[in-house]
Structure formats: structure tokens, C-alpha cells
Amino acid sequence: MAAMADAASALDPMLPRAGRVRRRRREGPDVWTLDIEAEGTDGWVFAPGQFNMLTVFGVGEVPISFSGDPVAGRLVHTVRAVGPVSAALVRLGPDDAVGLRGPFGVGWPMEEAVGRDVVIVAGGLGLAPLRPAIYRLLGERSRYGQIVLLYGTRSPNEILFRREIEAWRRRLDIDIEVTVDHAIDDWRGHVGVVTTLIPRATFDPLHAIALVCGPEVMMRFAIAALHDAGLKDESIYLSMERNMKCAVGFCGHCQFGTVFVCRDGPVFRYDRVRTLLGLKEI
Ligand SMILES: Cc1cc2nc3c(=O)[nH]c(=O)nc-3n(C[C@H](O)[C@H](O)[C@H](O)COP(=O)(O)OP(=O)(O)OC[C@H]3O[C@@H](n4cnc5c(N)ncnc54)[C@H](O)[C@@H]3O)c2cc1C
Ligand code: FES
Fold first, then answer.
1. Pocket of ligand 2, candidates 241, 244, 259, 276: which has the most ligand atoms within 8 Å of its Cβ, to mutate?
2. Average confidence score pLDDT of the chain
3. Strands across the sheet with 117-123, in order?
4. Whose Cα sits closest to atom 34 in ligand 1?
């Protein structure tokens, strides 16, 4: 029976697979990471930057990026509670049921990055969709040039994956700068928006590629700062978020002209979506 359900879901991207939460970890105010086990599947192949549609039965379904290690093949998602479905997701505890459809979308350009410096600019929750790319870059470290991670949050208690960032720092083969908009408590690090870190970062703009994820206003300023640093539009990639329903290019909910964010994105080269940034819908 489970095998039949599996075969059906492999054919029908609209059919959620059954899953269960195995573990959940608090990452910050309203943000939780869920480890999910999907029934009847061995591992889960996804590319950094792709997403799943997660269902809380009786509540609804939302797109959530993978935030775990693509090599491990585990289903890890980091969710901020902003509305009914995401709030229901973060309330799920061990053994609670969850539905999954995916993986969907086009992810980060990991092959285009080979041999180049990689500059990662993340704002707030934007580090979650970038974390699989960081795992890939560090897992295949010799394939890439300089790796720079610039991460900004509003306040120190919103820094995601804190212990992991500290462990990455100890490796010495990735440059990491973290900044907060507002220093509180005993914060002794950099204060200011994440874009202020870009001019200080060390990379070769002629041979670098930038991966940017965060609130759209932050991405617009980050792109301007990357331009000032010498990067061209064709070397800048960003992940766009738009409301979604089907996630497979059928319903048009995420459509902008000829672009479907669910199918053609969510990761786009900047020159392909320059005119769409800031638009809510067309
Ligand atoms: C490709 C993709 C990947 C995503 N990855 C993650 C992730 O890893 N972790 C995470 O917490 N969230 C992620 N999101 C955003 C998440 O899907 C929304 O927060 C969720 O759909 C909100 O649903 P809700 O019912 O909880 O709240 P709603 O009531 O639907 O929305 C609450 C508020 O959030 C806004 N909102 C809703 N959906 C979006 C959206 N897609 N983009 C921007 N604002 C939105 C609404 O305008 C409203 O202000 C992703 C979205 C997309 C499109
Ligand atoms: S969500 Fe339906 S077309 Fe993209």
C-alpha cells in the first residue's frame, strides 16, 4: 500500500507524501527548524535553493525551502511563523503528521560557481535557503575560490544557526562577517545593515559570483553594493518569494509576465528578474 502511494506521488506532483516530524529546534523568536521523515522514501534528493510544499492537515499548505545538507538527504526545513499555516507548522511536535510535495524549483547555480569566488549575502531568515549551498561549498571546498559569507539580522537573538556559524568560522577557509541592525545585550560584533559589509569583503569581482537571499528591500540594496564592488548583473543570483499554490507552473499564482517563480525560480540570475523586484504581482 505504501509502495503504491509512493509510486502515485512520484507521478503526481500535486499529491502530498505523508511525513512525520522527528525533531524540532528553536532557532530564534518565532523560528523553528523541523526534521521531517517522509514515509516510504529512502532519502530525498534536492538541490540547494529548492523548496517543498509543506501541508499542515486541516490548515493549509505553504512553500518552504530546504535548509539542510543536500548530501545527507534529510528533510530539514526552517520556518518563521508569520501567519496561519507557518504558525501551525512551527507548533508541530515529534510524531505529528505533515504532508510534503516536492522538491520544486530551480536552485542556486552551484556549477556556475565552480572555480570562482563565492559571495553569499543573507538577511534574516534568508540564511535558511542558503544553508544547503554553504554545505555544498564547504563539502567540495577545493572546487571554489574564496568563500565569503555576509550575514545580517535585526538583532543578535535573531541570528540563525549560531553554533554552526561559529564552527564554520573555525575552519579558516571561509570568511564570515555577521552584523546586526541593533546591538543589544552583550553584542560586541559589527553593527549596521548587511550591505555595509560588502565593501570590506575580500573577493575578486571579475571572477566572483554572488548568492543573495533576504527581504526584497535588503536584496535591492545588496545588489547595488555588489555593483559598486564591481560585480556584473550576470554574476548575481537571488531567491524570490511570491505566493504560491500549485508550485508546478499550473495555477499562475506566482506568475510575472512569462516568469513562473515556482517553476523558473525561486533562484534567478539578477538580469532576468531586474524589472520584477519590488513588484507584488502583475
Ligand atoms: C520559494 C519559497 C520559499 C520559502 N521558504 C521559506 C522558508 O524556508 N522558511 C519560511 O519561514 N518561509 C519561507 N517562505 C515564505 C512562506 O511560504 C510564507 O511565510 C508562508 O507561505 C506564509 O503563509 P501563512 O499561511 O503562514 O501566512 P499568510 O497569512 O499567508 O501570510 C502572512 C504574511 O506573510 C506574507 N507572505 C505570505 N506568503 C509570502 C511569501 N511567499 N513571500 C513573502 N511574504 C509572504 C503575507 O503577505 C502576510 O503579510 C518561502 C516562500 C517561497 C515562495
Ligand atoms: S504556484 Fe502555481 S504557477 Fe506557480
1. 244
2. 92
3. 190-191, 175-180, 147-153, 117-123, 208-213, 236-239, 267-269
4. 82
> Ligand 1, residues 36, 52, 77, 82: which to mutate, most atoms within 8 A of Cβ?
82
Q: Which of 195, 204, 154, 142 is nearest to 29 (CA)?
A: 154
Q: For 98-135, how does the pLDDT look when each residue is reduced to its tens digit (9 = 90+)? A: 999 999 999 999 999 999 999 999 999 999 999 999 99
User: What's the gap in Å between 121 CA and the centre of ligand 1?
Assistant: 20
CB of residue 244 inside a 6 A radius of ligand 1: yes
Task: Give the amino acid at 249.
Answer: G
Closest atom of ligand 1 to CA, residue 128: 8
> Residue 222 is placed in which grid cell?
545588496
131 touches ligand 1 (CB under 6 Å): no
pTM, 2 dp: 0.93
Q: How many CA atoms lie within 13 A of 214 on its CB side?
A: 24
Selection from 104, 94, 154, 164 nearest residue 128 by Cα: 164
CB 152 within 8 A of CB 180: yes
Per-residue pLDDT tens over the stretch 21-73:
999 999 999 999 999 998 766 667 899 999 999 999 999 999 999 999 999 87
Say how far apart CA 126 and CA 157 lie, in whole Å. 15
Condensed to tens digits (0 to 9), the pLDDT of residues 84-100 reads 999 999 999 999 999 99
* Contacts for 191 with CB less than 8 Å, ≥ 6 apart: 179, 180, 181, 182, 183
pLDDT the model gives residue 5:
45
